[in-house]
Amino acid sequence: MSLYSSLSAEQLRVEYDEVKQSYDDFKARGLELNMARGKPSPAQLDMSLDIFDSVNALNGYKAQDGTDCRNYGNLTGLDECKTIFAQALGVQNDNIIVCGNSSLNIMFDYISQCMTHGAGDKPWMLQGKIKFACPVPGYDRHFGILEHFGIEMLNVPMLADGPDMDKVNELIKDETVKGMILVPKYSNPEGITLSDECVRKIAAMKPAAEDFRVIWDNAYCIHDVNETSDELLNIFEAAKEFSSEDMFIEVTSTSKISFPGAGVSALAASDRNIEMIKKRMTVQTIGNDKLNQLRHAIYFKNLDGLKNHMKKHAASLKPKFDAVIECFTKEFDGTGIAQWKNPNGGYFISLNVLDGTAKRTGELCKDAGVVLTPPGATYPYGKDPEDKNIRIAPSFPTVEELRKAAELLAISARLAACEKLLKR
Amino acid sequence: MSLYSSLSAEQLRVEYDEVKQSYDDFKARGLELNMARGKPSPAQLDMSLDIFDSVNALNGYKAQDGTDCRNYGNLTGLDECKTIFAQALGVQNDNIIVCGNSSLNIMFDYISQCMTHGAGDKPWMLQGKIKFACPVPGYDRHFGILEHFGIEMLNVPMLADGPDMDKVNELIKDETVKGMILVPKYSNPEGITLSDECVRKIAAMKPAAEDFRVIWDNAYCIHDVNETSDELLNIFEAAKEFSSEDMFIEVTSTSKISFPGAGVSALAASDRNIEMIKKRMTVQTIGNDKLNQLRHAIYFKNLDGLKNHMKKHAASLKPKFDAVIECFTKEFDGTGIAQWKNPNGGYFISLNVLDGTAKRTGELCKDAGVVLTPPGATYPYGKDPEDKNIRIAPSFPTVEELRKAAELLAISARLAACEKLLKR
């Protein structure tokens, strides 16, 4: 195919007609596919089915230390469950709190606590307008939490190896900037893993706000897809050098390891932050679901258990990622209108289409039966300033379905590009 | 025994010596018992063991509507689980949100939301000092939440049929009084169930604050112990007459039906409040643990299922309640230093000892190996103004252990009374 930017109006019209024909053909097929959310497929969920048998009347319900997991008690989680998360995140058990089924909820709770009680001494809510640095594109649900609490979001571009730290270091000179939120490994949506240098720069930050916090959402810490896997520098190791451990709140979960609806989540933090969070938790709950923690601890045993399990997931996900990448490579070949990354892990492929055509591409897909994450969602307030980023979640559909959906997406992006260029 | 108040100093000395001897004998036995928390016994937990088998690889994990409960989705809970709670609380399914394993957490979240976003339009946190009416004695964890958020607590006496509503109606003329929190059935700790008249008075309240909320913690809605059970008027039915439905947030859970650590909790509220809470939940979580909801729905089926199950609990609890009451009747007979109630349900027995001797009684018990809920805990800020209330949680120990513990408690209370009266 030809570079769209070099086409004459007449050539564009020919291209438009051709692509429009393909699009209409697709539409006529009446697809009904959804690539909107990073939702594991039923086949992936089936990989964890035996988890149910870890705990029952026959196999027992007691933790290693004899705790009857059915009853009240145990605020910070079962030790055997802490061990698994501690190994996965490279911290000590004492720096882990095992929570409920949602790391999103941990982040919401943490920010909520900062609003009412502060990360330091003074509640964020009583400090006037406050702000967060938001590497973009990013995770819509992160932005949702910040928006809910009226925290102004400041876009920071994600570069090839992580957020633009020059920009971040500029922003944090303002003491109303209270934090940053990001997915450091296999980022949502681009699948970028922060370089060691970038992690060190983050650990070295000297924000004007003494109550500045980085929400380190390590959702995909062991979620490799390709055989080549990314390695993320341990943020708490990096922070040691700068004595900045208190600046980081790390979260993760088994949502995309066992069951999204009934997994176990965990928080990792410095001794000081753990104490502060425990103090709140004492009032907030008598304890999280220990039976589910026990199920997970017995089933996965340790980090090796998790990793072996994740190889099965990778085997299921890789053909899906490949199908999308192959399709893009073929369909956008030579057009110069799209860029994408081929991430080594995570749950998403990020596609940048021609500036100003992402929303239109989304509409075209939807009209032909393929639902995408709404373009714009990967930016704060749902506003992609260049209207170009589209997040693709390839996990749920089958490979066959994905091929169709990705092809439709590419055709829609080309059609939207033609439409835009013809209007010039 | 003789009325303590009528004893001469000399007679008191004799009584003291006698009671001291009994106390020392007890102490020498080296008891190790705990009546501090309303914790079901292992025997009670065993009654729900089959719940594990409701959901597994063999029996399935799909809800009635086909939802794969392992995956993401379903914000407000499975319909079949809503039905059970709706029946138990006498509301429509649409007015129920099924949550995680803790109704305490629902209350914390709700108050937290009111602080940051308000119950009406304006966040409570931006309205200066705010206050709650607190019927006393009450539940220490309620007071803990209010204290955590810096909400001033105003004591309101619990009368025989509920809170002193004259006092409440006086307090709520102050628009900084934003709410009231209570257990309306088998109250914690007294086991009082609000009379229909009292419930109607609560429904009829006209608080100055338009964003006034009553947290209706119906923790023991079906938790009868005696054959004679109390009936609580449905608060939402009562509220209809006064169009005050928006004033009430009702919560309950299966913590003391299935498993305290791994049950299911629920919130009931008016359409308007449900909408408001859903709006927050959309940001806070992708959904609660549906597998656990499904387990409960399949196992209990409906309100009849719950009620039949609770009869087994009652059979286990009744001899324990009886043992404590019998012991008190015997040990305090004629002394005139103690009052208690014989509740028809719930989890507690409330004992009022001689004014100014509850803390000392607690110390004496502790020194002899029996841990009670710390005296004072049943009042805001841990301060029982008359230092007389002691909460007894008889569920966890065996009947045999309870007999000993209750006897020691009575002896300790008598000893503390002698000590006090001798100092006159």
SSE blueprint and pairings:
The structure is a homodimer.
Chain A: H1 9-28, E1 33-35, H2 42-46, H3 79-89, E2 96-98, H4 103-117, E3 131-136, H5 140-148, E4 152-159, E5 162-163, H6 165-171, E6 177-182, H7 196-203, E7 213-217, H8 235-242, E8 248-253, E9 265-269, H9 271-284, H10 290-300, H11 303-331, E10 339-340, E11 349-352, H12 358-367, E12 370-372, E13 389-392, H13 399-422
Parallel strand pairs in A: 1-12, 3-4, 3-6, 6-7, 7-8
Antiparallel strand pairs in A: 2-9, 4-5, 8-9, 10-11, 11-13
Helix pairs in contact in A: 1-13, 4-5, 7-8, 11-13, 12-13
* CA-based shape of chain A: globular
How large a portion of the residues of chain A is in β-strands, by DSSP E?
Answer: 5-15%
- Average pLDDT of chain A works out at 96
Count interface residues per chain for the largest interface. Answer: A-B, 55 and 55 residues
What separation lies between the terminal Cα atoms of chain A?
21 Å
Number of strands of chain A: 13
Please work out how many helical segments of chain A DSSP would assign. 13
Calculate Rg of chain A over CA atoms.
Answer: 23 Å
Describe, in plain words, how this protein is organized in 3D:
- 2 copies of one chain form a homodimer.
- With 424 residues, chain A is an alpha/beta fold.
- Chain A is built from 13 helices and 13 strands.
- The first copy, chain A, has an 8-stranded mixed beta sheet, sandwiched between helices. A 3-stranded antiparallel beta sheet of chain A has the order 10-11-13, covered by helices on one side.
- In chain A, helix 1 packs antiparallel against helix 13 and helix 7 crosses helix 8.
- Chain A is globular, with a radius of gyration of 23 Å.
- The first copy, chain A, starts with 8 loop residues before the first helix and ends with a helix.
- In chain A, 57% of the residues are buried.
- At the A-B interface, helix 4, helix 5, helix 9 and helix 10 of A face helix 4, helix 5, helix 9 and helix 10 of B.
